[in-house]
Amino acid sequence: xxxxxxxxxxFIITGIILVAIFFLTRDKKIYYLSLGDSLAAGQxxxxxxxxxYGDYVSEYLKDKEVLEFYTKDFxxxxxxxxxxxxxxxxxxxxxxxxxxxxIKHALIKADLVTVSIGSNDLFYKLNVxxxxxxxxxxxxxxxxxxxxKDVDKLLYELRxxxxxxxxxxxxxxxxxxxxxxxxxxxxxxxxxxxNKMENLVRKYDMTFVDIHDTFLANDNYLPSTxxxxxxxxxYKAMADKVISLIDEKTLAK
Length: 253
Hints:
By secondary structure, the chain is an alpha/beta fold. It has one domain (28-249): 3-Layer(aba) Sandwich (Rossmann fold), CATH 3.40.50. It is built from 10 helices and 7 strands. The strands form 2 sheets. The protein has a 5-stranded parallel sheet with strand order 2-1-5-6-7, with helices on both faces. Strands 3-4 form a two-stranded antiparallel ribbon. Helix 8 links the parallel strand 6 and strand 7 (207-209). The longest helix is centred in the first third of the chain and has 24 residues, at 2-25. The chain starts with a helix and ends with a helix.
């Protein structure tokens, strides 16, 4: 009996050691997915596609030797909330390095997801790129509320597919380096939209990435034309916001 007892204890100790080894050596690398609109795609003020904030984040993770996978190929310029929602409902498929990947499969595997969405909804109403209609301002707040309902549906579906870290960008004022009058007029609308977005993001246990003040303090991130896309420094600043949150919420685990 004593021999059997010792063997049992030995098996238990061996099992504990094996479990400990598993948790100490398990893969901690990050599968990173960048979703959304032209900001996620990396559209420049000159209507070309270059490095986005996601590219800079992935480079940081690669330098840290913790990057398993990264793609921004699901992102597309001009995307609104309903477009990304349609991609989820249709389980959009892309090819990365010759391999087919569906968006839902990527979300299931993802350790980190960043999302920039909603700007096209908002700026479409503000008629950015054409003549700005000041008469539109009176009902813009109702329009923001309606747009947030679409974002709500989107974030719900994202959370159903991914249980890990999801970071959602807020909005910045695109007129700070173009027109003080226009910038001051739009500023309360941007703040209102950010407040709505932040509350929604927290509702789904996601992380809100606030870039409003960063862009407000650095108008050189945007060109002095009626253009909403940031330059390289602007994208790097967006990436820095994500990186600080990665260090705090993901790599610290």
